[in-house]
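FAQ: What does a multi-protein file look like?

Like this. Sequence, then tokens, then the next protein.
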Amino acid sequence: MHFVEAKGILPAQNGMNLYRGCTHGCIYCDSRSKCYQFTHDFEDIEVKQNAPELLEKALRSKRKKCMIGTGAMCDPYMHCEEQLQLTRRCLEIIDRYGFGVAIQTKSDRILRDLPLLKSINEKARCVVQMTLTTYDEELCRILEPNVCTTRERVKALQIFHENSIPTVVWLSPILPFINDTRENVEGILNYCIQTGVSGIICFGMGMTLREGDREYFYAALDRHFPGMKERYHKRYGYAYEVPSDRSRELMQLFYRKCRENNIICEVEKCFEYLRELPERYEQLTLF
């Protein structure tokens, strides 16, 4: 990893990225795409070492409390967070100033900060987002090799539910010919139901492939699924959107299971849920 002094940390949309790059090794990661203009290797993590100071300055100047997001482009609980504790320091600042947080991860390392997240949720609001893609544990270890498996993430979701912290699951991506099966999707949905998630974000059954991401993904297919790269080439060519041929069937299953269990399943409604900071919290901070 290498350290930089960032010029800013919190844009107008209130979503911050404390790191750039990732060490989880997920074979499908869109953040590898060249359009994001990385000037260093993806696994050489860029650490925005002055992020806590920038965040405190930004929160101090805000006239209205809001939800602060993190984890959209890089996981805030990568391996280096164990030593650096950059995410934890930023959460402490969010807690101190009475803001809410919507935090997204694939890692059960987030449980380290459970007391802090509970404090934020009591003062304002905390929503934990967890990505689940693969019900089968062995397949999960291939697709997402350097992070805890789906079952371990589900245990974390259950712990947050038991501590009254709301959760949202990202059901994305679903890889054609690999995990686009009814068994896989239904298994994940059952996990979501069991752990009482509030919403599931799903952009459709499939994935996206761009320059940079595509090459890494195809190299992984050659290692783990011989002949699969050729199948992708024949079916999709160099398309950006790579939908599953079973998308219609699987989306029907998704919507039915969500609606039967009162889980928010429309993408925009999920985002509204993540941005929502109830008025009562905003008023309490005035006194």
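And here is the next protein:
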Amino acid sequence: MKRSFPLSRRSVLATGASALGAASLGLSPRLAQAQTAVNFQLSWLHSTQFAGSYIAQDRGLWTERGLSVSLQPGGPNAPVEPPVVSGSALMGISAADYTAAAVSEGAPFKIIGVAMQNNPFAIASLSANPVNQPSDMEGMRIGMALANTPVLQALCTINDVDFDAIEIVPTQYSPQPLVAGEVDCLLCWATDLPVAMTVQGVDNTTMLMADHGYAVHSQTYIVTEDSLANRREEIVALMAGEVAGWAAYREDTAAATDLTLAMYPDAGLDRETQLLQAERQVPLMFSDLTDANGFGWWTDQTVAANIETLGLLGRDVSADLWDRSILEEVHSV
């Protein structure tokens, strides 16, 4: 029987690039006297990918800090960078490679937090013919967007794999080509196509590229240098709410999933899929490093690894792209 897979929230890769009540969560609404309205630009459509932010909004973690936050969804026609550059959004969620590209064109961005400690890019395969390590791809057909060729090349370079021994097959962003035997593996996010296959009962294997040296910070928080200098108090408050929201998410991903579905009932989200995505996101976002220093943290060593990988992607950046001062203030309280 042919399986039908829904179009993923990450389908943009194929081309390149009401609320749950506080009482039901056992919470007490908390209000602040003065509220400053700010826009927070998300990187994609609403889903559990941003559930920590939904918790912050639902629990009043921003209102108690004097902010009225509007969460703006992203998508294929809603890039993150323009509203942040223009000042219509105080902060946005991006990724180090996208930010590096924007900075190379003159955008005055700083990365002030790293939500995903491990990059979500993965190689998905069927467990009957698994890709467990990069060298397993030699002789295989990989389904992917041609625009992600530099990503695959970087992975091969890092792991001394013969890139020319891998056949790239341009595919739509769906598990179907793999399930149908048209390709042997897929380049995708670990939290979407493998999840879709698992929910459909397809036995699959996920090789996280971050486990094999592909170091690019993802789901990063970006602001402009001007905002960092002149709207610092608001940025600190916004990040403090994020930190608290994601801590609550980690404690109960099922509750975070239910909140997402309740806040966005018209988003077409499937609970089983969202639950599994929420669970699989946890090890990408939390680590020994965040346990020791706090959510969103990075070190000079992780930045150096990012700079090296970004160089393989053709993005030359320096360490001053990252500014940890906001997190230092948030986590020092």
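Q: Is there any per-entry metadata?
A: Some entries carry free-text notes. For the entry above: Strands lie at 36-41, 67-72, 91-95, 109-116, 121-126, 141-144, 167-170, 185-189, 204-208, 218-224.
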